[in-house]
Amino acid sequence: MANISLVFQDFNERSEEVSKYFIFLQDLEQEQVKLIKESQVNNKAKKIDNELEKTLKASAYLLLYNLIESTIKNAIEAIFDELQNKGVSFDGIRPELKKIILVNLKRRNPDKILNEIEDISLDIVKIGFNREELFSGNIDSKLIRETAKKYGFSSQTNYENTTNGEDLYLVKNNRNDLAHGIKSFAEVGNHKGADELIEIKNKVVQYLKEILTNIQRYIDNQEYLDFNNTP
Q1: What's the CA gap between 111 and 130, in Å, rounded?
Q2: Is the model's pTM score more than 0.85?
């Protein structure tokens, strides 16, 4: 992921994939499409059972959470890519980013990073970023707001269209329940109809889109710079 434009492109492609799956669930529920299996006894077609439909619905939360996590990780990575591409030094970035980099450096092995440093004011920015350390399967709107505050970009969205990301809590919790075996797929998929799932998906996608727009503005306006420390 090199820049915010590629982040948007990846987001749009993934969103389209997710949307197709949700529409399939709606068509399946409304019996506009049917999943059947052929009986080995009498060669008659047999409709899949309701438990499998619930499992398919539960899987929608996994797809949606994957979209959330990949989008936010890619966007944060784009900020650091921008700093490196523009050759922004540690001294030139806003205090919030300095704190992030210094905290990340505490996790690094000095022996491993020593050979990577040629110009410490530039290289410290690169070394202070590790995509895998960004989040650990718990992204919701609260964490996104905290991340926005840490980096200095806006987390404001149009509440009417996004409910400010409230649905991310449901998506995250269901995803974690499935990932950790707390609930079965049939349990998770039993609570929402396809129309409700599509409504959740639409609001989540719109929320992510507006957060990405905020980050794009942050990058385009170079809001990562410490303007109080600019000569």
Answers
A1: 17
A2: yes
